[in-house]
Amino acid sequence: MYAKVLVVTAGMGVPGTKLGITAMKYAYLAIQKVKGGEVQNYALDQFFEVGGKSSTLVMSTAITEWFKVNPKHEDFFSQRTNLLGKTIQIEIKGLLIPGVTTKVDVKVDVVNQYGESIASANGIDIPATGNQLGASSLRGKIVRLPSKKIAQEVKTAI
Q1: SS (H, E, C) the chain
Q2: What is the pTM of this model?
Q3: What domain range includes position 47?
């Protein structure tokens, strides 16, 4: 099973600190049981945040390549009902320069009401593109994309 993440943040933040204001954050998570197979698309959004872990200079984007989901969590991620409405935390760490594919660390955790991870799809040195100074972090409820048109646009983008 494979996952792919797209994260966009807009605002101002200082790398390595919790100083900043984020006006908009959103993420898309794509899950694929086998390479080239059907893609399940999910969305996550979060608007206006003071503080936080993201290092944004006006706007940052990060788009990962497909990466393996932890085999012990494949069953969890393969069922839409396990994801919809759950709180998910997505974090992408690494410097991204526009027009250059570099490697980032990706952490996708489904968390319970105590903030503990109950399932994860994490990767180290995952190829990615975009523009990012240090890290993007986003937490919120995961939803299914509202229409096939949007799902197709996300599939094309990621």
Answers
A1: CEEEEEEEEEEEECCCCCCEEEEEEEEEEEEECCCCCCEEEEEEEEEEEECCCCCCEEEEEEEECCEECCHHHHHHHHCHHHHCCCEEEEEEECCECCCCCEEEEEEEEEECCCCCEEEEEEEEEEEEEEEECCEEEEEEECEECCCHHHHHHHHHHC
A2: 0.78
A3: 2-157
Number of domains in the chain: 1
Say if CB 130 and CB 62 are below 8 A apart.
yes
How confident is the model over 74-132, as pLDDT tens digits? Answer: 999 998 888 888 999 999 999 898 888 899 999 999 998 888 999 999 999 999 999 88
87 to each of 48, 79, 103, how far by Cα in Å?
Answer: 17, 15, 26
- The encoded tokens of residue 43 equal 């969305």
